[in-house]
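2024-03-11 09:14:02 DEBUG pipeline.ingest accepted 1 chain
2024-03-11 09:14:02 DEBUG pipeline.ingest length=479
2024-03-11 09:14:03 DEBUG pipeline.predict start
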Amino acid sequence: MGSVRAKAAAGATAVVAVALIAAGIAVLLVLRSNLHDQAGLQAEVAAREVASQIATGTAYGKLDLPDGDEHPVVVVNDDGRVLAVGDEVRAIDGKAVSAGKQGSGSGQSGSSDEDSDDRDDDVSGPKPGEVDDDATYRDGTATVDGTVADYRFASVEAKDTAGKKATVRAGGALASEQDAVGTVRSAMLIGLPLLLVVVAGVTWLMTRRALRPVEGIRGEMAAITASTDLSRRVPVPAAQDEIGRLARTTNETLAALETSVERQRRFVADASHELRSPIASLRTQLEVGVAHPELLDVQGAVEDTVRLQRLAADLLLLARLDAGERPSDARVDLAALVREESSQRVADRIPVRVGELASVEVAGSRSQLGRVLGNLLDNAQRHADASVRVAVVRDGAWVVLRVDDDGPGVPAAERERIFERFVRLDDARARDDGGAGLGLAIARDVAVRHGGSLAVREGSVFELRLPVPEHGSGASADG
């Protein structure tokens, strides 16, 4: 029972079994009830035929009674005295009956004929010469020609022309009902297990066919895991069903995983390359300083150390971002952040000009947003000819931080690639003063994790768009 196929087959078989058993019981009960009622109706018809003869004045000894095998009949008076009995009828409910003797009726033995005459004056029941419209029923047995069988008895009262009341009891055989019910029950007992076997087999085969693509997906995933080849994909069935969607989603997951792993590999390789250069340069300078102290380039060693420190900080921040670190929910005023950052950049090659500053607060990490602003300004300093400008404006539900310069701008074909890690355009590489190509990648990652975006507009304009929190502060110009 460990497989889905076995569970599905067992579950379907159990459900069908319960349904068939309930339906079979209902069919048997309805069939038995109908046949029972039919036997009672036949018994009532036979009883009314005899009662009609009595009502018309036919003597009890001359009554035309039906064959005892088909409808055993006994006629009794109010005292239970048998007035007439069908041929070969020997007993009713195990009590012997014969004409002129006390029978199995109400059984008031010792009553005289005068008592019967006194009851003739009873106003209840049918009138003289009539048959009662009502009939009563009960189940019982009758012994006919030495054979005991079950019958459905119907009792009908009638009065002869003299006003004497008699009760006609006629039976309808229940053998046909019992035979029919037994036949149906036997057919069900034989057919139900066979049907359940068919249901279980069909369910097993259909489930196996339906789950065959799943087994293919599982096998391919096992092979991918064993080979670590993330370029492989699981087979996609042609059917547009849940399994097809599962296969497509699995392939999308594998593609994303492959991209992530490849990106991680490139990141490790590029980080190793970027770290190798300053470490090798610093080691060389220190080794020269040890051998020839007078040749030690202290300034160069400090620059290499600072470069190495910045690179390590960038790699650490990227690692935290890749690990899913979420920014805090603190409120940060971008205008104040711009003023603070620009006031500290006194050693820049080109002074930073501050344009419009809309005082708008956003939710996030002040240190990370400060890193974004610093990276954008560093990038502008490397490419500007004579002007670097920063501004903060409100745009509906967004606040926009713009940093632009008068440099040559970014070619349209490169405006997305520059946000990749360790990517530096050829012109930028020729003028690079130590950047590792991580600044813009870090800036975009931080922007995305703050619910915003970072893109290049009009060649040399970088726009950082961040959502304004609900109930955020209004905008006010600060030039």
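2024-03-11 09:14:41 DEBUG pipeline.report The longest helix spans residues 175-227.
2024-03-11 09:14:41 DEBUG pipeline.predict end
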